[in-house]
Amino acid sequence: MSDQDFIATVPLDAVPPGKTKAVTIAGRDLLLCNSDGQIHAIAALCSHADEPLACGRIRLGWIACPAHGARFDLETGEPLTGPASEPIATYPVRIIDGMIEVAA
Fold this sequence. Notes:
The protein is an all-beta fold. It has strands at 6-11, 20-25, 28-35, 38-43, 57-59, 62-64, 71-73, 90-91, 93-96, 99-103. A hairpin with a 2-residue loop joins strand 3 (28-35) and strand 4.
């Protein structure tokens, strides 16, 4: 991807390990997730019932929907447990000069 495809969002320290940060990029509501120091960008809503994932529990490589417990892989967006059966969108992330940049 070229530099113009990535959009600066928030400083890296705005998303501490185990936490999330909601952002809107190009009209899309996304969730930045810090899983043990690895930053991921995913769709902000669960694919099962459009519930917000912002308060979801993050563990090594996955996030759990706080409404129904569905777990999603943070790399691929694939559901790891039900009731979700459809993946959530994921987006490329990079860190430049302490800023989280997302291609969306």
